[in-house]
Amino acid sequence: MSEIVRVSTGIKELDEALEGGIPKGSWVVATGEPGTGKSILAMHFAYAGLRADDPVVYVTTEQEFRDVVVQARQLGMDFEKYSIYSLGWKKEPEAMPQIVVIDIFGLLKVARGLSEKAKEEAPEKARRYAALSVETLIEAITEAYDVLGLLEEGGRSPSRHVRLIIDSMSAFWVDKPVMARKYSYQLKIATHRDNVTALLTSQYAPTTGQAYGFGLEHIADGVIHLWMDEVETAKEVRRHLIIKKMRMTNHSRKAFNLEIEPGRGIVLRQT
Ligand SMILES: Nc1ncnc2c1ncn2[C@@H]1O[C@H](COP(=O)(O)OP(=O)(O)OP(=O)(O)O)[C@@H](O)[C@H]1O
Ligand SMILES: [Mg+2]
């Protein structure tokens, strides 16, 4: 039996609760209401990748990457120590970057490229690709792998281990929630590889407790759920984290208290 390789989440207590980390090649979803810490969890996972010398692809639909860098620095993670390339930039990458960022500008650029290509190939069937579409996202991820030097001639799957972060998936079906399940499958088929450990975030509607992208949770290899106590009753922000599922892992079944501390980021304490 081959040994399971564990990939660090960047959070010590979480790694311990996962028998060392996320199994390499897993597709993990972090779900939760606004402000529960999903984006910060994503930053930890990306930063741990850079420290471990894994190439990183970081999709951020929520914030410009500039802002991710600023917030990460407040939490003790200095992304600027590493060479960053953004797919939205006009200039070509000079050297091989360690992390490729895909923000809304990158997605717009890729969507434009896809639309132009479709027009050239079959003008009668020309169509416009939207920036926030799963097709554009898949193409952007493939381009990012290419910039990272991970694709063999003509291939679309990375030749070595890469971390993929998508924060957040909800942006891709915000105007058509009924499509969440279909889009989730499409994305999983396109990106689930032995060499890709993925962390995707998904929003919960605070009022109904319903995930906008409930399809994701069913098809994910792992679900890490974050929530906070009802603030009007608690009269403070009390956050929690629980591992709801993780394939091939005898994970902790207990919730943690989750604090976000300046200089440290997410700190978990067993309740
Ligand atoms: N420098 C900091 N020090 C302490 N806490 C911080 C700091 N920066 C952010 N936070 C806390 O983290 C929260 C934001 O967490 P995060 O962005 O990860 O939430 P999220 O789950 O991604 O929310 P959303 O669904 O809105 O994207 C802030 O509301 C704040 O409480
Ligand atoms: Mg967020």
TrEMBL record:
What Gene3D superfamilies is this protein classified in? P-loop containing nucleotide triphosphate hydrolases
Transmembrane domains' residue ranges: none
Any one GO MF term held by the record is:
ATP binding
SUPFAM superfamilies referenced in this protein's UniProt entry, alphabetically? P-loop containing nucleoside triphosphate hydrolases
The residues covered by the KaiC domain are 5-271
Provide the alphabetized UniProt keywords. ATP-binding, Nucleotide-binding
Query: Per its UniProt record, what InterPro entries does this chain match?
Result: KaiC-like_dom, KaiC-rel, KaiC_dom, P-loop_NTPase
Q: What is this protein called?
A: RecA-superfamily ATPase
From which organism does this entry originate?
A: Thermoproteus tenax (strain ATCC 35583 / DSM 2078 / JCM 9277 / NBRC 100435 / Kra 1)
